[in-house]
Amino acid sequence: MDYSQTDGGESLSGALGSRRAGILLHISSLPGPGKIGTLGSHAYRFVDFLHAAGMTVWQILPVGPTQADGSPYQSSSVHAGNPRFISLEPVIEEGWLDELPLEESSFSDNGRTFALSLAWEGFKDRASDEDRAELDRFCAEQGHWLDDYCLFQALHSEQGGCWWEWLAPLRDRNPQALAEARARLCNQIQYTRFEQFLFFRQWFRLKSYANERGILLFGDVPIFVAHDSAEAWSHRAMFDLLEDGQPRAVAGVPPDYFSETGQRWGNPLYRWEQMEEDGFSFWIERMETQSALCDLIRIDHFRGFEAYWEIPATEETAVNGRWVPAPGEKLFKKLYEDLPHLELVAEDLGIITPEVEALRKSHGLPGMKILQFAFSGGADNPYLPFRHTRDSVVYTGTHDNDTSLGWYNSLDDAERVQVDNYLGRSREIMPWPLIRCALSSCANMAILPMQDVLGLGRDHRMNTPGTTEGNWQWRFRWDQVEEDLPERLRHRVMQYGR
């Protein structure tokens, strides 16, 4: 059977044209010392686990620098990497940082920053000519975003608050004020360049290790940009902002499955007409960076490229918004013209109209099928496995859902019987019947959250949409991984031709 064809006869090329299975686990959820996971030894061990389990995809969440709430979907840059992911192990091995007097798990974020600042001093004193040249090349190649980002970060430290609260000449990017700031903050700017150099160096080494073992990295690009970000500050003409830097309206979604009042994300909206006039260069540069970091990319909130939910900035909830058309057709045509090897997946959840579906299909983006959504309603539910198509990515659940065990246990008796009847009343304990259902789907790609692979309950949920407390903190432990788990997964993956 030719698995490279969709039900509609359209060809799926590249990695998306093969039957694959993978695991969803963000970098921050890796085990190890420190407050969150890093790109250190535990990341490599996880790649080995994926390989042993027969998986060929590692899906992650956005990897940009996070803000106070820790959400990877509210980053201070669309290009930069999260410096909290930098592992101190290889920095010590390079000889740029002495052994730490304390375990890394004792470090606060300030402690890690202090350690990295010591590494910068060590680099200046002891780096080889080859490493210095590599840093210079990185700064030159990434200068189109790196210079503004480093200045933005330095000003953040100096000025405090958000960029629209800075002194007007800095807020409005007065050339003389910026030149003076670059001279005044030169040391901080150089350090931040080094910090990003470390992130990208460690990232690409991990990516090479994964690719050599047949593992593809599956990234995630949020549609919108955080208000307090280097891009909103340095590309103000591209955003719907008032003269004082405040948004006229903000992004979100109307009431849906996740929230009765919708979700008010608070991101500034784009001036799409300005982006189109500029040849969508903002998006082309953004996707160039992300396609270098990852082999596959999920486009979050894909429906917002056809029409987005505009909420007046004065509204406290997302209820009183309106749909506004977006130039998605022109954007994706331009992206594929300039970046023909992009492999994109559409996050097409929520209120999906025929127009959104047409936009996705016209550019050959697979959509998402969530099994936790499949068992309500009747036989016309599009998430039911028999309604999947090959140009899909099937999930038991996502980072925004409860774990599959938590979801199953929360069902009432009638709902649980309905799920059991559909899945065949397997002798396997939940969530394995749902995992088997995902792997057996005709969808070309099946993704399993790590929580489901480990059989964990609702206390291990990653995110609850519409809330701001207690999210993005989950991490797994290696002692939760049973010895035979890789073999059990590999058996199922092979059984279903992935």
TrEMBL record:
It holds the Pfam family Glyco_hydro_77. It catalyses: Transfers a segment of a (1->4)-alpha-D-glucan to a new position in an acceptor, which may be glucose or a (1->4)-alpha-D-glucan. GO terms for molecular function: 4-alpha-glucanotransferase activity. It is an enzyme of class 2 (transferase). InterPro entries: GH, Glyco_hydro_77. One of its GO terms (biological process) is carbohydrate metabolic process. Its EC number is 2.4.1.25. Keywords: Carbohydrate metabolism, Glycosyltransferase, Transferase. NCBIfam families: malQ (TIGR00217), PRK14508.1-3 (NF011080). Belongs to the disproportionating enzyme family. This is 4-alpha-glucanotransferase. It comes from endosymbiont of Escarpia spicata. The lineage of its organism: Bacteria, Pseudomonadati, Pseudomonadota, Gammaproteobacteria, sulfur-oxidizing symbionts. The gene is malQ.
